[in-house]
Amino acid sequence: MGKKGEETKQHIRKAAYSLFAEKGFKAVTMKDICEKSGLSRGGLYRHYPGTEEIFEEIVNGFVQKQEDEFADRIGKGIPATQILEEVLSRYKEEMNDSQASLSVAIYEYYTAAERENNALLIRYGASKRMWQRLIIYGMERGEFRRVDAEAVYDIIVFSYQGVRMYSKMMPIDEKIPERIIKQIKEMLL
């Protein structure tokens, strides 16, 4: 696919992301994405056969982007504390931004009766390995306390996703993400 085709797909994913965040996965149609992106049905279907493929690319993109970011920064020898600070700062912003949360859409997508949950487990495993690599990297450099990296990951991911999910259903006090981030830092630093 050429540069223009990839730019169009990126435009589609951006339009679809906002719809999925607003409506969840089940309520978004290809027609909605056509209207939001300004593409004709033919133009949209030239790039994606359905909402599932668009959603998969969005979710895969997030996981891959963070995985690449961690690997790149660790590979360059960036201090683990700096990487942690930057990621947790972003997580805090995301927890406070309920409008941009895909948590409900992710729940709907992966709990569909016909869908296997292996894809979700694969993503969970990739995310866990990435975070464990950062935590172990930080411990090896003497920047992080000695901790159970898997347990810390569980606290990070389930706290983050829990706040994101709840924020779609009720107002969340902005101090909640602050307290969570503070405790994660206290566990590690």
Write a brief caption for the model:
The chain is an all-alpha fold and 189 residues long.
Report on the architecture of this protein.
- The protein is mainly alpha-helical and 189 residues long.
- It has a domain at 58-188: Orthogonal Bundle (Tetracycline Repressor, domain 2).
- Helix content is 75%, strand content 0%.
- The chain is built from nine helices and no strands.
- The chain has helices at residues 3-23, 30-37, 41-47, 51-75, 80-95, 103-110, 118-140, 149-167, 175-188.
- Helix 1 packs across helix 2 (30-37), helix 5 (80-95) crosses helix 7 and helix 5 packs antiparallel against helix 9 (175-188).
- It starts with a helix and ends with a helix.
Rg: 18 Å
Q: Can you tell me the residue ranges where pLDDT is under 50 for at least 5 consecutive residues?
A: none
CATH topology name of the domain at 58-188, in short, is: Tetracycline Repressor, domain 2
Number of strands: 0
DSSP helical segment count = 9
